[in-house]
Amino acid sequence: MARRALTTAAAAFATTAALLLTACGGGDDSSSDDIKGADGSSSPSASASASSAAPDVKRPVIKLPSNFQVTFENWTSSDPVEQAVLNDGKEQLRAGYAAIIEKDPDSKARAFYDTEAGFSQSREWIKGYTDKNLTVFGKLPVFDPKVSIAKNKTAASLSYCTDESKGYTKNRKTGEVKGNPAGTDPEVFYLISMAKSAQGVWQTVSARSERGGCS
Asked: Model pTM?
């Protein structure tokens, strides 16, 4: 269920449709059906409140079902710019999993949090699931976030780790459930490149992932 590690984007995203689809986008060497992304609750939940940056921007409402629980551990910063990056990076991830669950590769919510190039990658990643008639469920902790802001404050990088040990994919037609293959490292490291839009939204430009890169 993870997003495949992205090296070049579309190609990497396409390869993420096996058991552990590394979620945001890359091309790592594991199979591809892993989960990634959104705060879970006992019932469909709306997205977190708008980022501290650009509070006047109307962000999309992102809903995820109660059987898909993603927790963001220590996802806070005392620096308002870093917090804005964390907030928008979090919602970008949530939007991607909502698109998979809703079978919507052209998700407007995901596009909101991506640059044009980033959304091209995202769409291929989402289709890696939807073309195989897969949805995702389970639990996915997202942890150890780190933010680096460029001097001009219009570009940033966001890294974090996920634990896919309790994340699964399910075939909508057959009901077949799959998780990470035995012996596969359940932790995946992600590195996200981001750019600040004219509206003040931190959008994803590209993403890379490495299974086992969190140790």
From this structure: 0.79
Cα–Cα distance between 119 and 9 in angstroms, integer?
10
Specify which residues 146 forms β-bridges with.
159
Alpha carbon distances (Å) from 55 to 38, 59, 197, 200: 21, 9, 13, 9
**What does the domain layout of the chain look like in residue ranges?**
10-211
- For residue 193, how many other CB atoms are within 10 A of its CB? 17
Size of the chain, expressed as the number of residues it contains: 215
Q: Which residues of 152-162 are buried (b: 16+ CB within 10 A; e: fewer)?
A: eeeebbbbbbb
Selection from 78, 83, 129 nearest residue 103 by Cα = 129
CATH of span 10-211: 3.10.450.50
Q: What is the pLDDT of residues 53-85, one digit of tens each?
A: 456 789 999 999 999 999 999 999 999 999 999
Largest CA distance in the chain: 51
pLDDT tens for each residue of 99-143: 999 999 999 999 999 999 999 999 999 999 999 999 999 999 999
